[in-house]
Amino acid sequence: MNKVRIGIIGIGDISGIYLxxxxxxxxxxxxxxxxxxxxxxxLKAKDANxxxxxxxxxxxxxxxxxxxxxxxxxxxxxxYGVSKAALLAGKHVYSEKPLAATLEEGKELVAIxxxxxxxxxGAPDTFMGAGIQTCRKLIDDGFIGTPIGAATFMxxxxxxxxxxxxxxxxxxxxGPMMDMGPYYITALxxxxxxxxxxxxxxxxxxxxxxxxxxxxxxxxxxxEVPTHVNGILNFESGAVGTIFTTFDVYSDSQARFEIYGTExxxxxxxxxxxxxxxxxxxxxxxxxxxxxxxxxxxxxxRALGLADMAKALQTNRPFRxxxxxxxHVLEVMQSLQKGGTTTIExxxxxxxxxxxxxxxxxxx
Length: 364
Description:
alpha/beta, Rossmann fold, Dihydrodipicolinate Reductase, domain 2, 9-stranded mixed β-sheet, 17 strands, about 30% helix, globular
């Protein structure tokens, strides 16, 4: 089996699970090269993976003909610049979410990938996990009848109390919609299909945030993006959903995600995870019943979308977390973050569901 060689740009907090899964879980991936502006981070990755090549600049990674896919794990506002440079160098690109910080940047990336006949896609890939895939099968098989609505909530008071470097969450490309919205909207479009229009109110309730986590304890961050977003989603199917994301609210619980149908209600697990509790309410039952997961990838399986892209590269088939999806999600998020009413222009068609009970670590 010829493995697909991965070059990673950015060895930050999220890189740990990617490094682990690329080297231990996905049989068709090979960790080939890493690069970070802080070389110590790259050296730490090499300590755990002695065969990996360290490059001092991303251009050196892009120039290496042995790199098949560039994995962009930089900060959100850096995604565009890194992905664009990689595409122009002729590399396929898989990026952490979001695709870009603005709609215009996203359009340009998609256009370059199309012009150069390169694969472009990215996170989140949690929709490919056991939780969301089980929910998709329940909906597609008619367990709640015809879907008529959805309600999603992501409530917290921000990252400054625990994240080691939280400032970027309040800068260009950040905020709860751009940070956590990708998980919810990606799950929604995979369960209910394309979003045709949105309506929203977005604001920031705090002009500054004070960091109380190490190593930046006591530093003040100016808030540049909306941190409290209330939205309505109109789906092409006729279903109507609500989405609420905030970094401004205290809460002792996390995600709430419900899909309403003509014949029942489905409680969907946290879309930031690959597993979770699924509950189905049918009127004849009168109470929620726990539904078992019936697909693979119930553990933290980040890089699943990357592995799916690699399989597509090997077999010339479509891949699930492609740029049609990441761009559609970006357009929806941008419309919600700016407020008002917006018609969504981008196309979106759901890709094939995952195959249950295959070989874990080898994509179909």
